[in-house]
Structure formats: structure tokens, C-alpha cells
Amino acid sequence: xxxxxxxxxxxxxxxxxxxxxxxxxxxxxxxxxxxxxxxxxxxxxxxxxxxxxxxxxxxxxxxxxxxxxxxxxxxxxxxxxxxxxxxxxxxxxxxxxxxxxxxxxxxxxxxxxxxxxxxxxxxxxxxxxxxxxxxxxxxxxxxxxxxxxxxxxxxxxxxxxxxxxxxxxxxxxxxxxxxxxxxxxxxxxxxxxxxxxxxxxxxxxxxxxxxxxxxxxxxxxxxxxxxxxxxxxxxxxxxxxxxxxxxxxxxxxxxxxxxxxxxxxxxxxxxxxxxxxxxxxxxxxxxxxxxxxxxxxxxxxxxxxxxxxxxxxxxxxxxxxxxxxxxxxxxx
Length: 332
Prior knowledge:
Elements: H1 14-27, H2 40-47, H3 51-63, E1 67-70, E2 74-77, E3 86-92, H4 97-108, E4 114-120, H5 125-134, E5 141-144, H6 152-156, E6 164-168, E7 178-181, H7 184-194, H8 196-199, E8 204-208, H9 216-228, E9 232-236, E10 248-252, H10 255-267, E11 277-281, H11 285-289, E12 295-299, H12 301-314, E13 319-321, E14 324-327
Parallel strand pairs: 3-4, 3-5, 5-6, 6-7, 7-13, 8-9, 8-10, 10-11, 11-12
Antiparallel strand pairs: 1-2, 12-14
């Protein structure tokens, strides 16, 4: 039985007929996972169609994860799920509670026939490069969270620019890409300014900042606020050897460090919001209840996920700055 049929007088484009033929063969059980499909040259010669026509059909099936190519051997059935129409490569830096909110909102607002595969680079440039290199041509869309890795534009140049979406952080080198991003400098400066009447009772502001993982915009927004407000400030990269003292206000960016500073505050018998203050970055359900509530400066991750889904479904290029707000609680 011939798997591929192409009717010359049909109104259906020939590449579409090739796709339909492969899908029908899978649906009927003629082709199963691991089976080899007719070669590009065999389809071209048997049905008098161009090489580009067959390649267009194969590329769509490949992008949807239905077939894959093995160098020197041909094309094989990779998946029997023919209902998947499009595939999204989603590369996060790491998974945490607020990134999970983003991810769930993204899935919620996508069509059911779009498959999303999630990967993590953990701020490691070699992993970042390998994950992208290994998946070139395997997806319809690529959603990339580059974090603060340098020279990522060289790696991303291997992907079709119109199908790439930058998430969370965007550098000058990536300004030509569609993106949904945070303006970290503005968000921190604005949040601290809104809370300035609470902040002024403290003698010093302390920012816990990791240069390797956290956006430099946070550092710039923090220092700009302190300098404009004539406030003493300090920037540290770890809490291990730090003893919090009366009159300090800590800006904590990492959830684990938030628990560490609260533990140190208790160990030194300091009273939160009276003798010492804490502001955290990115809101979570936990921060509503810990110590009666932790003040946060946070972007809306659910909105980020929703807008990302809309952008992909509409296939329109855009750059959207995600809003942030100060959530004032009892910790300052």
C-alpha cells in the first residue's frame, strides 16, 4: 500500500496532501512510532513534485514532533499524536513559584493543540547553547529566558528571528526580538519610592545581590533611589557572615535568602518592622503569611504568561513591558 498520495487536480496544496497522507497512515495504524516513511526523493519522483514541496511537508511534520530525521538514514515516525499542530520550545533560567505561575498562565491561554516543552539552563551558558543547538528546527516557536547570560544573541542567531520570543530580561543586543520583559531599574526605583515614607525610619538600606544570577537593572534602580534620597546603603553578595543590626532595611531577591534573613533576625532578637525591615522581590502566596506578611516589589507573572500566549497565537511582533507594583505588608 502506498502511504503518500498526491492528486494533481485537487484544490488542496500538494505539500498539504503529503502531510495529510502521513497523518492518515498514522491514524489508521499503517505507520507507527519508529517506522520509516517514504524518502524525500521517492515522493518527489513518484508524484512529480518539487523537492521544496516535499521538504515543506516534512519540515511541518518535524516541527510538530510527528517525524524526525536521522542523518544518513531518512525520516522516521517520532510521535503518533497527530493532533499537535504546533510546538513551543520554552527555555527558563530556573523554576520557582512565580515562574510556575507564568508557565501555568501561558498554558491556560494557548490552544489545546499546541504542545509546550519546557527546559532549564540554570544560568549556565554551555547548557543554554546546547539546548538551543540541539533543538534548532524542531519547534514552531522558541520562547527564551536568557537571564543575564552574555552574548546570547550569537546563539539565538541560529533560530528564525520571527519565531523567537524573549522573556523577562532583554539586553540591547536582543532589542530586535519580540519580547515581554520587566524594566527592573524602573520597577525597583518606583517601588522603593512608593514605600519611601516607611523606609525613611531606617538608617541603612542593604541589597543582597548576586551578579551572576540577578538583573543589573535591580542594582541600578536600588542605587539610584538611595542616592536620590540621600540614604546610606550597602550591597552584599551573601548572608553567611552577615549579622543584621537595628536600623537596617534589607532588600532580598531570593526566596531562600528571605528565610535566612528572617532566621538571623530572630536569632539576634530583633523585632521585624520596628527595629529592622525586609522587602522581598516577586510576590508568592508564602509571602502573604510569613511573619504577618512580607512587603514585595513584584511584576504580574500571570499577565506575562497570558500576553505571551496571545502574542504567539496572533503571530504578531511586539515588545511589551510587564507592569510591577509594591505590595505593602507588615515587614517594614
